[in-house]
Design brief:
By secondary structure, the chain is of the alpha+beta class. 20% of the residues lie in helices and 33% in strands. Strands 1, 2, 3, 4, 5, 6, 7, 8, 9, 10 and 11 form an 11-stranded mixed sheet that branches.
C-alpha cells in the first residue's frame, strides 16, 4: 500500500511531538504498548495507524489532528496490556446530581491497577462515569483515568471540579478554551453544544488521559 502525503505529514507531526517531549522511539513504544521502536519508526514514516489514539494521548495531541475520520475526541481505551503493577490507583464512585454534574464518593470504592500513562503520577485517580452527556466518548459505567496536574489542551476531556464544603462535585466535559472568568466547554448529548462554566463555581480542572471500559 502506498503512503500518502497526508500520512507522511501525520508521521512528521508525531516525530516532532515525540522529540519535543524528549522521548526516544523506545520510550514512546513502551508508553503505548507497542512491540518495538521499529513500530514507531513505521508510524513516523507514514504507516501503521493502529496506535494513533494512544499516541495522541501520550504526546498530548488532539486525535483529530492525526485521524481526520474522528468526529469526537475520545480518551484512549485501556486494554489489559496497559495495566500493570499493584492495585494502588484509587477509584471513586459517582452519582448524577442534575445538569450533568457528578457527586463523587468521599472514599474510594475500589483500588484498580495503575495504567502506564499514570505510572509515576502522584494523586492520579479514576472515577466511574454516571450520566450520558458525553456519549459516545464516555458511557455510564466506564472509568475515566485522571491526571490532576496536566494543563488542559483544546479537545481534552476534563473534570471541572468544586470540592468546597467537603463535597467533591465534578462535570465531565470537553475543554474548548478559557477566559479570565470562564471555562469554554462542550457536551455531546442530547446534541453537541458549546457553553461556559464560571471558574468561581468550578475552580479546578483535571485532565482525563484515558478510560477503562468494563464491557
Amino acid at each position: 500500500m502506498s503512503i500518502t502525503a497526508e500520512n507522511r505529514q501525520r508521521g512528521e507531526k508525531i516525530r516532532r511531538a515525540r522529540e519535543a517531549a524528549d522521548m526516544s522511539r523506545k520510550d514512546l513504544a513502551d508508553a503505548i504498548g507497542a512491540a518495538s521502536p521499529t513500530t514507531i519508526e513505521a508510524i513516523e514514516n507514514g504507516g501503521n495507524t493502529k496506535y494513533l489514539p494512544r499516541i495522541a494521548t501520550v504526546l498530548r495531541l488532539p486525535l483529530r489532528e492525526l485521524d481526520s475520520s474522528v468526529d469526537i475526541q475520545a480518551p484512549v481505551i485501556m486494554s489489559g496490556v496497559d495495566l500493570f503493577g499493584p492495585r494502588d490507583l484509587k477509584l471513586y464512585g459517582s452519582i448524577e446530581a442534575g445538569e450533568g454534574a457528578l457527586v463523587v464518593s468521599s472514599e474510594p470504592v475500589e483500588w484498580i491497577e495503575r495504567p502506564a500513562l499514570l505510572a509515576t503520577v502522584r494523586d492520579a485517580y479514576g472515577v466511574i462515569v454516571a450520566g450520558e452527556s458525553m456519549v459516545p466518548a464516555l458511557r455510564p459505567g466506564e472509568i475515566v483515568l485522571v491526571h490532576p496536574y496536566l494543563q488542559p489542551r483544546i479537545e481534552d476531556l476534563c473534570l471541572f471540579i468544586n470540592d468546597e464544603h467537603g463535597e467533591f462535585r465534578a462535570l465531565v466535559k470537553e475543554y474548548r478554551g478559557q477566559t479570565a472568568e470562564f471555562w469554554k466547554v462542550a457536551r455531546y448529548k442530547p446534541k453537541e453544544t458549546e457553553f461556559t462554566l464560571k471558574k468561581r463555581d468550578w475552580p479546578k480542572v483535571h485532565v482525563v488521559v484515558g478510560k477503562y471500559s468494563r464491557r
